[in-house]
Write a structure and sequence with these properties.
single chain, alpha+beta, NADH Oxidase, four-stranded antiparallel β-sheet, 8 helices, globular
């Protein structure tokens, strides 16, 4: 059932007992849309994963804005099943590095196939992760596999991996927009992160992002992205 507000305005409607605010979409010309989409692509295409971090300070307010930007992401049933833990504490960063490198050593020596290691070789990555201490901030995205209310009762979340994946993509874009760099780090398994940070039982580490300014000079692998024809198919 749809009802207008009592004053007859279209500022909001009531749909099935819930308020829905009026949304005015931005209308631009086709030409401007082409220009904006091209400009946005060019800007995003300049983003690179960086392993060489400066220890220059990044204000906490910037990190807060990055997390707020990520949290604008859509999510299943609007449950927003994520928590972003931001760490600047040197002791915690050291603990995280030690634990991550322990898992990485096992992975490189026994878990990873030779083919996998060959595929990683052009990226210049190995089991050593100094950026976990060097970067001024670590942001760790935890997915909330279910909610726990104040009475300890569990409540469902929906499409958790999809939701937090979208939020992390928006977070990476926000980091780039702030003139900062990051690197997607996924030590496996990541259970040690919840333990070090004393996170509740309903949270699972999803992604670790060191955040800061690029060291000068910084170097990135000479690699190319796939062409449009290799990542799309149009049905017209």
């Amino acid at each position: 059932m749809i009802e207008n507000d009592k004053m007859g305005s279209m500022d909001f409607i009531t749909l099935n007992g819930y308020k829905h605010n009026f949304f005015e979409s931005q209308r631009i010309s086709e030409e401007e849309a082409k220009q904006r989409s091209q400009s946005f692509y060019n800007w995003l295409d300049s983003r690179r994963s960086v392993r060489d971090f400066s220890d220059q300070n990044v204000p906490k307010e910037v990190i807060e804005n990055l997390i707020k930007s990520a949290s604008t992401a859509p999510s299943g049933a609007h449950k927003q099943p994520w928590i972003f833990c931001a760490i600047s504490n040197a002791k915690l960063k050291c603990e995280i590095r030690i634990a991550a490198e322990k898992e990485e050593k096992i992975s490189y020596e026994s878990r990873m196939s030779e083919r996998w290691k060959q595929d990683l070789a052009p990226l210049g990555t190995d089991m050593n992760k100094p950026f976990l201490e060097r970067a001024p901030w670590l942001i760790i995205a935890f997915k909330k596999i279910y909610e726990i209310d104040e009475n300890g009762s569990k409540h469902n979340n929906y499409y958790v991996n999809e939701s937090i994946g979208i939020a992390c993509g928006m977070l990476i874009s926000a980091i780039h927009n702030a003139g900062l760099v990051t690197l997607t780090h996924t030590p496996s398994p990541m259970n040690f992160l919840a333990s070090i940070l004393n996170r509740p039982s309903n949270e699972r580490a999803f992604l670790l992002l060191p955040v800061g300014y690029a060291e000068q000079p910084a170097y990135v692998p000479d690699i190319e992205r796939k062409e449009l024809s290799n990542v799309s198919f149009f049905y017209e």
